[in-house]
Amino acid sequence: MPDLSRTPPAYDLEALKRDDPAAFEALVRAESPRLFRFLLRMLGEEEAAQSVMQETFLQAFYRIKTFRGDARLTTWLYGIALNQARALLRKNRRYAPMEEADLDRLQPAFSHGMYAQRYRPWPPDVLTEREDLRRLVREAIDRLPDTYREIILLRDIEGFSTEEVAQLLKLSEGAVRVRLHRARQALRALLSPYIEQEDL
Amino acid sequence: MKAWLQRWRSRRRLTCEDVNRFLAAYLDGALDAHTQAAFEAHLQDCDDCQAYLDQYRKTIELARQAADVPEPPPALIEHTLSFLRKRLFEEPPFNA
Ligand SMILES: [Zn+2]
Distance from the CA of B16 to the center of ligand 1, in angstroms? Predict the structure, then answer.
């Protein structure tokens, strides 16, 4: 995957902290496209994504002097964006996500340390030839409880490292992996009927 | 050591449930060398764990593929900059 998070742009942090407009403009230009796409995935509407992004940069500008540099600037910026997006989602949610208990039921069952059911590999062409799956995958992601959906978006889709997601969500790396694992397993379970029932 | 005995011993170290619990750490390359060796030894020997790992990896890949969103509108950046200029300063602060 193109892991954008691994090539940090060289921002002039000193200039940003001096409120240098050119430095701030450079930040907006560099981060906008990716941040917008993240917010669009999170919120589902261009208008909402744009307004949250603007608010995010505004907050970043006000708070840049408190940025201590222990996370990457991009990670810090996404932290602000995430809080803004959460607040908006709380106000006008368009769907009812599943409950934690539903998520439990989507985890694999074990008996005496072994899987309680048999598994077969999925056919390789699920990744290339199944346009219909994309919609199902999007719907499945949208059904996850917010904290699980966020972690899939940040780690698996945006490509932030586990360490960065941990900084962003103020969790330990272990806690990030536990949550991520539950989310991925739930997604797997939601998708498997569609993949396995159709003879490929 | 006899091959079957070696298999039995390495497999005994981790159950399928253990292997499952370590999946995210394994894909992150975050397991210690000892656990990783036991993980891989179990995997070698267990069809269910292999198949489950395959589905797990493909789930991640499907999520990534499905999340394609359209390119941002062309005026996005200029709109954002002018919003910020208006909110932050009376005068255009950026090298407009
Ligand atoms: Zn196994």
Answer: 4
Q: How far is the CA of A185 from the centre of ligand 1 (A)?
A: 16
Q: What is the DSSP string of B52-72?
A: HHHHHHHHHHHHHHHT--PPP
Residue contact B23–A127, C-beta within 8 A? no
Q: Is the pLDDT score of A146 beyond 60? A: yes
* Domain containing residue B58: 3-89
Q: Rounded CA gap, A137 and A134, in Å?
A: 5
The ipTM, to two decimals, is 0.88
Residue B48 CA, ligand 1 centroid: distance in Å: 6
Is B94 contained in some domain? no
**What residue ranges define each of the domains in chain A, with the CATH number in brackets?**
13-92 (1.10.1740.10), 100-195 (1.10.10.10)
- What is the band of A119 on the pLDDT scale with cuts at 50, 70, 90? very high
H or E segment and range at residue B73: none
Q: Is B58 in Cβ contact with A127 (below 8 Å)?
A: yes
Q: pLDDT grade, residue B94 (50/70/90)?
A: low
| B71 in Cβ contact with B81 (< 8 Å) | no
Ligand 1 being an ion, which residues bring their Cβ within 5 A of it? B 16, 46, 49
